[in-house]
Structures are given as C-alpha cells and as structure tokens.
C-alpha cells in the first residue's frame, strides 16, 4: 500500500488497544487506592506500567512497592467508569481539577469486592478472573509528566474457568480482557491466528479468517 493511500491525522490520544487493568496500591495511612489504567507491557515475569505522575497510584508506588494488577471482563466496564474520573490524590492536581474529583473509597465507588492478597498488602479485585500480585523493582521519571514503573509479578491468580484443567495455561478461548481503544471499551473479537509456540493451540477451533 503506498503512503498516498493514507491521510495524516492528529488523534488526541494514541490508545490503539491495550488491556484495561485495575491497579491497587497502599496509601500512606494503610488504606487502599484503586486506579484504572491501560498503559501496560510485559516481558517474562516483569511488567511495565505507565502512570501519570500526579496520581495517587504513582505516589504510592514510589513509597510502598506492593501492588495488584487486576484485569476486568468487558462486562465490568461500567464499574471501571464509576472510578474513571476520580483520584486518590488530594488536593486534586491543577491538570485534573476540571474533570476529576478526589475519592478516598475507590473500592466502594467501584462496586466490586476487595479480596485479600497473599504476598503484598493491597487487596485484589475478586470479580477479575485474572489477578497479579507484584512488587515494584524500579521507577523512572518519563520525559513527560509520567512515571514508568517496572514491577516483578510474584504470583498470578486465575479463576478456574479460564484455566486449562491440570495445567498452568490460561485458555484464550475462555479468557477475555477489556481492550481500551481510543477511549472505547471492547472485548476480544474473532481469532485470526496463533503462534506455533502457543501452550493452548490444541484447544482452538481456529479456522483462518480470509
Ligand atoms: C480505561 C482507562 C485507562 C487509563 N489508563 C491510564 C494509564 O495507563 N495510566 C495512567 O496514569 N492513568 C490512566 N488512566 C487515568 C487514571 O485512572 C486517572 O488518572 C486516575 O485519576 C488515577 O487515579 P489515582 O490518582 O488515584 O492513581 C486511565 C483511565 C481509564 C478510565
């Protein structure tokens, strides 16, 4: 395809489709903060999160390294929205003042259930089928107003219905993350293919999409 077939655009965001997560962290007084986020990548057991520097999640993780990362099913998107315009930070930063309000009880607002963690202090979100407990290993200030957080995943929890019985493999036919694409929430669409190295290739009823 030649570049002449494309037009130049200036989108306000570059959220091309990343998983939605609910990150729980520990406030200075021992209470829990919870934040929706989607800037995420992982390699091996490490994950890297992109966090706005003025948020409570960023502040907590520079002081107290334990966190949980919880992946909601798309049907829970309205719960995510219920805390989308809140911050645990007080005062609310000037950059956020027009839209965000301070909320101390994010879990109450979210309408989902805290579930005790085993290796870190902040709780998990019970209704999320996939949950990580993790520990920050390094934080790095970005060139913009954000913080890069590198965290080691210490333990992964999965609801039995998304696990291939008797294995450590998440069944991609049963698991569905919420995908954040240009500020819209999606589930997964049709499967288009898989890697030969997939742990679960034998399970798939895949037939190539033309
Ligand atoms: C779907 C969704 C994805 C978001 N992704 C991020 C993100 O990746 N990083 C980030 O810092 N904020 C992200 N935000 C915005 C934060 O949730 C928001 O800044 C919030 O106020 C942070 O809360 P806190 O200050 O209590 O940490 C996202 C919000 C939504 C609704």
List the main descriptive attributes of the protein structure presented here:
binds flavin mononucleotide; globular; three-stranded antiparallel sheet; 3 helices; 210 residues; mainly beta; Pnp Oxidase, Chain A; seven-stranded antiparallel sheet
Model description:
This protein is mostly beta strands. The protein has a single domain, classed as Pnp Oxidase, Chain A (Roll). The protein has three helices and 14 strands. The chain has helices spanning 56-63, 77-82, 106-110, and strands at residues 18-19, 21-26, 32-37, 40-43, 46-52, 66-71, 86-87, 101-102, 114-115, 124-125, 130-141, 146-158, 179-181, 184-186. It has a seven-stranded antiparallel sheet, with helices on one face. β4 and β5 form a beta hairpin. The chain is globular. The mean pLDDT is 94. The site of flavin mononucleotide has 20 residues, from β3, β5 and α1.
Strand share of the residues? 25-35%
Report the top-level CATH class: Mainly Beta
Largest sheet descriptor:
7 strands, antiparallel
- The named CATH superfamily: Electron Transport, Fmn-binding Protein, Chain A
- The geometry reads as globular
Short description:
This protein has 210 residues and is mostly beta strands. The protein has helices at residues 56-63, 77-82, 106-110, and strands spanning 18-19, 21-26, 32-37, 40-43, 46-52, 66-71, 86-87, 101-102, 114-115, 124-125, 130-141, 146-158, 179-181, 184-186.
Topology:
Blueprint: E1 18-19, E2 21-26, E3 32-37, E4 40-43, E5 46-52, H1 56-63, E6 66-71, H2 77-82, E7 86-87, E8 101-102, H3 106-110, E9 114-115, E10 124-125, E11 130-141, E12 146-158, E13 179-181, E14 184-186
Parallel strand pairs: 7-8
Antiparallel strand pairs: 1-13, 2-3, 2-6, 4-5, 5-12, 6-11, 9-10, 11-12, 13-14
Protein name: Flavin reductase (DIM6/NTAB) family NADH-FMN oxidoreductase RutF
Cofactor: FMN
Organism: Arthrobacter bambusae
């Amino acid at each position: 395809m030649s570049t002449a077939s494309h037009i130049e655009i200036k989108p306000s965001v570059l959220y091309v489709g990343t998983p939605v997560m609910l990150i729980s962290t520990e406030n200075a007084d021992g209470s829990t903060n919870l934040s929706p986020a989607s800037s995420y990548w992982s390699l091996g057991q490490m994950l890297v999160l992109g966090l706005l520097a003025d948020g409570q999640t960023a502040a907590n993780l520079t002081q107290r390294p334990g966190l949980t990362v919880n992946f909601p099913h798309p049907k829970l998107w309205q719960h995510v929205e219920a805390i989308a315009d809140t911050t645990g930070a007080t005062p609310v930063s000037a950059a956020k003042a027009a839209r965000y309000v301070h909320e101390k009880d994010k879990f109450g607002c979210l309408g989902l259930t805290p579930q005790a963690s085993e290796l870190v202090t902040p709780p998990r979100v019970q209704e999320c089928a996939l949950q990580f407990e993790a520990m920050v290993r390094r934080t790095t200030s970005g060139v913009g107003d954000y913080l890069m957080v590198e965290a080691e995943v210490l333990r992964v929890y999965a609801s039995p219905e998304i696990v291939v019985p008797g294995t450590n493999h998440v069944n991609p036919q049963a698991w569905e993350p919420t995908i954040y694409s240009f500020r819209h929430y999606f589930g997964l669409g049709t499967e288009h293919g898989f890697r030969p190295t997939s742990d679960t290739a034998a399970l798939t009823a895949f037939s190539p999409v033309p």
